[in-house]
Amino acid sequence: MLDLYYWPTPNGHKITIFLEEAGLAYRIIPVNIGRGEQFAPDFLAIAPNNRMPALVDPDVDGEPIHLFESGAILQYLAEKTGRFLPADVRPRFTVLQWLYWQMAGLGPMAGQNHHFARYAPEKIPYAIERYVRETGRLYGVLDRRLAESRFVGGLEYSIA
Question: What's the predicted TM-score (pTM) here?
Answer without folding.
Answer: 0.94
